[in-house]
Amino acid sequence: MKAIVCTKYGPPEVLQMREVEKPTPRDNEVLIKVYATTCHIGDVRIRSFNVPFWQMIPFRLYLGITKPKRSILGMELAGVVKHIGRDVKRFKPGDEVFATAGFVFGAYAEYICLPENAKRIKEGLVALKPSNMTFEEAAAGASTGGLTALCFLRAAKIKEGQTILIYGASGSVGTFAVQLAKHFGADVTGVCSTTNLELVQSLGADRVIDYTKEDLTEHSKRYDIVFDAVDKLEKAVAKKLLKKKGVYLNVVRNFDSEESIKTEDLIFLKELLEDGKLRTVVDRTYKLEEIVEAHKYVEKGHKKGHVVITV
Description:
By secondary structure, the chain is an alpha/beta fold. The protein contains 9 helices and 14 strands. Helix 4 crosses helix 5.
């Protein structure tokens, strides 16, 4: 099968199309033919090994010293089940699914094997695809972006009537955070650039702050929750924006919150998507052979929602 292989840590050009062996599902796994994946910021950071200084040593040990141990990246996908292991009960060949591959990676390929009922997001989670979505829409962050936003909002114990400020409201995590926060009954303030104001408003934000025109250090309003969805808001500024007993969360520094994510959470998002209470935002679409260009675009840090890769 065709796959994109990360030959070493470095610029986008280290990603190369190769012929690799097609995987075979174990007893508890499903073999999925990948129709769409995404260029996730996580893929970009791993490919370039652009991680915070305090994470460098543990990440090198876990991911690989000079190149990724799992050389086929790709964290999000949607496709069709082709074969199942003998112990699989939830799926059958022909089922349309969407999934997060987690730190198993492997979505930059024509086929991937994932466990039917993983206990942790790191092992990958699979659910039936929302019936009202295309493969491209389903792959676009509903698995990882949506799950990340969901777990952080739950970690903050968000509840009806609370106020929340979401910094990076137009990104892959932020677009879901805005919608989910509204679903839980919160009053939402989104922070983004001028070009994304209309988008964030359309997602349901009660108000939007243009960070290119308003200085948050001089912002007078205080919030129950401040969620930095892009790891670009200075911690001191975030703390200043909080109420006395407010909660501050950072998508990178508190990433261990994601350990609690389960398959049931992916099914919860599926139901919201099918009910029209949640939607994905697709910025651009590239073909698998254009993966280098996709990584270059995402690396600039200005994408709206998600960048999809068709396989």
